[in-house]
């Protein structure tokens, strides 16, 4: 189907959904959904004693921190297509980086679209749906134009051989997709003397703050907001202002503790190389052994990236407090998947192992969650949709896509309650792979 026809078709199905009559009252809570990229639970609130993540740690202390939260697929595009429609990859059939929800489920009612249908103004600054590698997001899901910023970004000219388009930049900008292998590799890390807003996460934080300010002073103040703010760090490349690198002593950077595949694991369950090989000075031979200095540099960059993202999240939460919106705003913090970072001998994601599938997930729901609670409830990305729906008092959504999530409302009220006995993950590596 031609792109223009497909876009018009999506417009027709979504506007028909939005035109339906639903009950609406002015006391609906606001929703702030904070999305981050490639972050495993390397946070102080999750027991990491090396990382500096004071802002997210404070957010965690306000509500419920899920210790056993898992994504449903450890790949950027399809994991967001489990979150937004509350559907497993096995339901949508979308497994790859070029996953486009509307090609498989053109009538899918995503999480923000469901909220828009019930009177919410839905907005999307930053990386929400995956854009790149042929994807262009899902504009139909939001009430206002998407605020797009870079995922792959360099400021130091030496990182790009003097300003040339690199492989990963091209992929994430949907440029020269037929010439990727002929493009130069960008640097795996850089640390220039620049301000926070010189990088995308700083700009996304500033834009999110503007959106909150507009929501506060909007004339039609009875309109609640649903803002999905997407931060790209600590996704590769591991670039951050020098001050964040300086927060960490390079001599004390922890190195991977276990660098071999689990005993007895089939070869197909592991991964070598991957996206990290597109960055120098990482060896292009996917089977190469990394020098200890390179390992420390990569992990150093991951921590620096995590810290700059943490500061930007802190700015947004501080503004939410300053505007006195906190008491009526549900805040969810979610990472799309984990990251091996050398553990099991793997450096990125794209596996069914714990390092790739376990994620940080926080929910602060005023009047429902109690501060500093930590249940032992297994949860999945698909659970966020039905949970927010029930928290906001909206009707349960029934599809047309498969709704695979469970509402966590009862768990939020009582951390001893159990609503799910397992979590499910799928990553097809040469053959369909499943983890329960």
Describe the structure in your own words:
This protein is α/β, with parallel strands linked by helices. It has a single domain, classed as Alkaline Phosphatase, subunit A, CATH 3.40.720.10. It has 13 helices and 15 strands. It has helices at residues 3-18, 54-62, 76-83, 89-92, 101-104, 111-116, 167-172, 200-217, 242-245, 292-322, 354-357, 384-391, 409-413, and strands spanning 30-36, 64-70, 121-123, 131-132, 135-136, 186-187, 189-190, 225-230, 238-239, 279-280, 329-335, 358-364, 379-380, 425-426, 434-435. The strands form five sheets. The protein has a seven-stranded mixed beta sheet with strand order 3-8-1-11-12-2-13, sandwiched between helices. Helix 8 runs parallel beside helix 10. It starts with a helix and ends with a strand. Residues 1-16 and 18-25 have low confidence and may be disordered.
Task: List its traits.
two-stranded antiparallel ribbon, 436 residues, Alkaline Phosphatase, subunit A, alpha/beta, 13 helices, 13% strand
Give a short summary of the structure:
The chain has helices at residues 3-18, 54-62, 76-83, 89-92, 101-104, 111-116, 167-172, 200-217, 242-245, 292-322, 354-357, 384-391, 409-413, and strands at 30-36, 64-70, 121-123, 131-132, 135-136, 186-187, 189-190, 225-230, 238-239, 279-280, 329-335, 358-364, 379-380, 425-426, 434-435. Strands 3-8-1-11-12-2-13 form a 7-stranded mixed β-sheet, with helices on both faces. Strands 4-5 form a two-stranded antiparallel sheet.
